[in-house]
Specification:
mainly beta, single chain, about 180 residues, 5-stranded antiparallel β-sheet, about 0% helix
Length: about 180
């Protein structure tokens, strides 16, 4: 099985816009393997990992990615939940609670204050709506060398509209990592 990381290269002239990103496949991490025993939630089907119809490459939902030297990330859990909306603009309903784990082995403190997790669903990559009031726990501001940090992100995603695509940008100059697949119900 081959695993690749999607890198989105952004120009220094500002944020990326639709059609302005270049996608580059990076070498797989030596640690690219299924999630460890820590993921007790439903397992995913990784048949959607690899090259998609539009030519980009993504990791499977159970893979471990190297975002920059000494920094690895993985989706530790993906749980189907029934989200309850309580903030203006939120919509309740079927959702996924996605736990992202980042491990720091850089030799220094890793800043996670600008870390962002986005989710998309379906073949059209419809942006999933975040339901922040329903159990979301963002990354801590930083993680010490040798330690791990977790963030939980809840996105409204209809059950019939899967596969899902999860994009992780740690916001510290690291590569944007894309995980893709079908979480089991």
């Amino acid at each position: 099985m081959s695993v690749a990381v999607v890198l989105i290269v952004r120009s220094s002239s500002g944020p990326a816009t639709a059609g302005s990103d270049s996608t580059v496949a990076a070498a797989p991490s030596a640690s690219a393997s299924p999630s460890e025993k820590e993921s007790e939630s439903s397992e995913s089907e990784d048949e959607d990992a690899g090259e998609s119809s539009d030519g980009d490459r993504a990791l499977g939902l159970k893979a471990v990615a190297t975002t920059s030297p000494g920094v690895t990330a993985r989706l530790a859990r993906i749980d189907s939940v029934q989200a309850t909306a309580s903030l203006p603009g939120e919509i309740g309903g079927p959702a996924l609670a996605i736990t992202v784990k980042v491990k720091n082995q850089t030799g220094k403190k890793l800043d996670l204050a600008l870390g962002v997790v986005n989710a998309y669903y379906g073949q059209e990559r419809t942006p999933a709506v975040s339901v922040a009031s329903d159990g979301e726990v963002p990354f801590p501001a930083s993680v010490a060398d040798g330690d791990s940090a977790k963030g939980v992100y809840v996105f409204q995603i209809p059950e019939e509209a899967r596969p899902v695509r999860v994009e992780l940008d740690l916001g510290n100059g690291a590569d944007v990592v894309v995980f893709k697949g079908r979480p089991q119900r």
